Amino acid sequence: MNEGRAHEPLENRIQAGRRVMLYDPSLVGNFDPSWFEPGHWSRIDALRGEAPGRGSTVFFESEGAAYALRHYRRGGLVAAMLGDRYLDAGESRSRPFREFRVTQRLQRLGLPVAPVVAALHDPQGLWCRGDLITRRLVGVSTLADRLVRSPGSIDWSGVGATVARFHRVGLHHADLNAHNLLVDDAGHWSLIDFDRASFREAGLWCDANLVRLRRSILKILDSLNASLDEAMWAALLQGYRETSSRGGSP
């Protein structure tokens, strides 16, 4: 799972009609627009499933590497009206391009993320659609999975330390929850999904991020008719505080 963590990302830009794409040539030297088409991967028998949820993320393989292709799709009540359409504010402000660059910045800082491969901004009149491709972290499970299958195996201090590493560089995660924290068999944690993430000065948003994570954990436990062991949450906070107060690199 550690592959790519020390990777120094690059950015190339290509355009096909009004569609604009960014990609990292050091990860995919053979990149072309077909990478954003699930049908392309299906035709060459390279699809490897999809993520649970609204069906917006599919997995594929190319030249021995695993990837995740996510199509940006709205949630909540507005999804019924707009689906996958967003008001076009220009490519530099598009959600896929912003997530691409936020993730690359985290890569440069040496933080544990899924390396970003490519982003698509597809304007259509006043609206636009978008996609993002990342390397898929294999051999991992989410914090949510661990809560369901083996809660006793969770390194709560490690979870807190991981969140603190991102907060130390000012990363505000817009949806910090138990599904976006991943751990491998060696106990290394990673954070994914930086849609609408931003860099900020330290502030109360750090506490709000932790509250959001706790709420996500409680929701999963409630579905299992279980409760949160406060000693476990205390261990998470201890790992968070120790890493937050440590000097040096993230």
Summarize the structure.
The chain has 250 residues and is of the alpha+beta class. The chain has helices spanning 38-43, 79-82, 95-108, 143-149, 156-168, 205-223, 230-245, and strands at 12-16, 19-23, 47-50, 57-62, 65-71, 86-87, 116-124, 127-135, 140-142, 171-172, 181-184, 189-191, 198-199.
Biggest beta sheet summary = 8 strands, antiparallel
**Overall pLDDT metric:** 92
Topology as H/E string? Answer: EEHEEEHEHEEEHHEEEEHH
**Structural class based on helices, strands and sheet pairing:** alpha+beta
Compute the number of helices: 7
Report, as a whole number of angstroms, the end-to-end distance. 19 Å
Question: Proportion of β residues?
Answer: 15-25%
Indicate how many domains the architecture comprises.
2
Low-confidence stretches: 1-5
Global shape: globular
